[in-house]
Design a protein that fits this description.
The protein is of the alpha/beta class and 232 residues long. It has nine helices and twelve strands. Strand 8, helix 6 and strand 9 form a beta-alpha-beta unit.
Amino acid sequence: MAADPLIPSSAKLVVLGQAATVVLLLIGAGALAFAARAETSGMDRSTIGRTWPIVEPDALTEIEAKVATLPRDMSKAFGPREKWSALKAAALAPATSDRVRTVVPFYTLDFDIRLPNGKTLYPKGFTFNPLTFVKLPQRLVVVHPRDLGWALRTARPTDFILLTALGGDSGDPIALTEKTGRAIYILEERVKERLGLTVAPVVVAQAGQKLVLTEFGPRSRRLPSNLIGAVR
């Protein structure tokens, strides 16, 4: 798809940069939807009376119409990029040694989930493991800006690369994306907490109903990428 001149590339990336967060935060919602479908799959369904298709405006058309009303250069409205709160990454300490650990990202509901008939399917306070129902479609490679070169050599084409702050340095994901030709995201605080991250570099991958966090110390970061798997 050709680039839209009406949308600044920096604005596009800020929107795109939320993809990593969305994947993780929607795990819970996806799990609930799956569970609800499973719970109601045995219920009888019937149609009474006439039905009509629901006609809604095309979302993309609405977005394009809104964008057309905005100034071509949005940078003046947001100020210097280094002050954008949306580009401030959560901080992690540097990994001092190689370590592999597992995390179960339990999620606790803060509201009741009810069926259309009013019956409570899952009550507020119910705790479950979203990975029981869904699969994380890619790995997350979380690194400090100084280790981005290592991440680019190590990450698979489908992996998400997320920057974490070190000493107040979050890096500039927009500039780095344009420079490397690969989408670079930021690590948000809520994702850091949900995954139980403490140090970086770390690669997060799903294994069954748990997440495997592989942390890389200084020695592993110096190894050629084709040898990294040999020390695991």
